Amino acid sequence: MLCLSTLGKQCVSTNAKPAKRLRTPTDLVHKTQALLLYSKNSLNPATQMTELTLLIRELKLILYGDDASEPSEEACAELTREFFKEDTLRLLVIFLPKLNLETRKDATQVVASLQRQPLPLRFQASRYMEANLDLVDILISGYEDPQLALHYGRMLKECLRHQIVAAYVLEPSQLKKFFDYVQHPSFDIAADATDTFKDLLTRHKSTVSESLSKNYCWVDISLLFLSFSLGWFLTEYFFTEFNQRLLKSTNYITKRQAVKLLGCILLDRSNSSVMTRYVNSKDNLMILMNLLRDPSRNIQIDAFHVFKLFVANKNKPTEIVSILVTNKSKLLRLLGAFVYTDDEVFETDKDQVVDELAILELQD
């Protein structure tokens, strides 16, 4: 401060405190890990919660920066390496339920950022997740807890950036859970789960194609073993589950999101073999024909983009041809009432479908 008696000469107060040394990213990770370990085993972790909150906020500051400065690449890299080397990510995920709401948000952002660091750090994150896939189980089951669903859901979506994580979640035992999560009574949780479900089925195209082809037929192994004594077994199909639980849902949002997602999956070239199997099913065709009559214009449009695949199929099974010919007049009237002149692509596709239906006949 300036002393008036010395006119312009700077004088230092004898009460000034020395500047606090800034902690390095490595120091922060080690301190966070130590506190998480201590609090995990402590009967009363509340006394450490304040310091833990400050540490997690400081971790977030390094990764995201603030209004005054951008994050430092060197600091982010150091923090990321230490986080995965010291297994701090596991502790933070497991300890999340004990954190207060604001600190959960900060912790979620920290975990999210660690998954999308630039190469080669992203390889380190991917290798860590591959060796700790049980953490993915925790993140998935988070949708069952309304207090944690959106936090664990955000973490899960970021972890799906890694192909190895996506392949794991695409396994039938994990994927089946999402048919419940996307219909959660809470709109926010259902929307978040739907977003994750869509990301899972569209991000890693080759992995999705391989998984859907391999697991087109799902067999519940536990029931299969039981079947040998009971004389029956249960076989579930991915698209049967998709059709029955999502496309036939009475919830408008669930149904519309499902139809849009189905179109994204089937129209992707990498899923051509899956698409061929889908459009050869008469049950699938009947569901799409019913969706064409849905009161919602949006659902009608999205359903049309899937229905047209059945009509365009050059190798239609006889039962598909029979259904289309039997319902030809109704379909032509229905499609004739679809007047959406603002979408030229839709109108072109519709004209082609109408032309194909008009000449379609049963072969002797």
Description:
The structure is a single chain. Helix content is 68%, strand content 2%. Helix 16 packs parallel to helix 19 (297-312). The chain has 364 residues and is mainly α. The chain has helices spanning 25-41, 46-64, 73-85, 88-95, 101-115, 121-131, 134-141, 149-159, 163-169, 172-175, 178-181, 187-202, 205-214, 221-230, 238-247, 252-267, 272-279, 282-292, 297-312, 318-326, 328-336, 344-359, and strands at 217-219, 235-237. The protein is elongated. It has a two-stranded antiparallel sheet. The protein is built from 22 helices and 2 strands.
What descriptors fit this protein?
single chain; 364 residues; mainly alpha; two-stranded antiparallel ribbon; 22 helices; 68% helix; 2% strand; Mo25; ARM-type_fold
Count of helix runs: 22
Low-confidence stretches: 1-21, 218-236
The first-to-last residue Cα distance is: 102 Å
Q: What spatial form do the alpha-carbon principal axes imply?
A: elongated
Which series of helices and strands comes N to C?
HHHHHHHHHHHHHEHEHHHHHHHH
Q: How much beta, percentage-wise?
A: under 5%
Using the CA coordinates, give the radius of gyration.
28 Å
- Strand order of the biggest β-sheet: 1-2
The beta-strand count equals: 2
Mean pLDDT: 85
Biggest sheet overview = 2 strands, antiparallel
Helix content: 55-70%
Structural class by SSE content: mainly alpha
